Amino acid sequence: MNQITWFEEEQTLEARYQNWKSQNPHITRQFYSQFNRLANHWVKTEKRFGSKMVAEYLRYNGHFTSNESDYKIDNSFVSRLGRDWQAAKPDLAGAMRNRELRS
Fold first, then answer.
1. Is the CB of residue 39 less than 8 Å from the CB of residue 94?
2. How far apart are CA 69 and CA 5, in angstroms?
3. pTM of the prediction?
4. DSSP class of residue 72?
5. Using the 8-state DSSP alphabet, how is residue 94 labeled?
């Protein structure tokens, strides 16, 4: 497996996430599209969902690949993608609960 290192080891998790996100806008678009679909479903059924569920759905169905490595979405970035989506869609943000960020 040939993996490209796309961040400096001493960078914070947030800095690594922002770098990854700028390198992979297609993943962000697909992630947000799936979030929108699930959020619209939630409005009708009042069922909640989470960032991890969306990431696993997209991974399982092979919807994308990262520009920088063999990994599609780093697990460390999943909650940040969800938070970014919530910031962009405050009217639907209640569809998802967040835990406190640890790093």
1. no
2. 8
3. 0.73
4. S
5. G
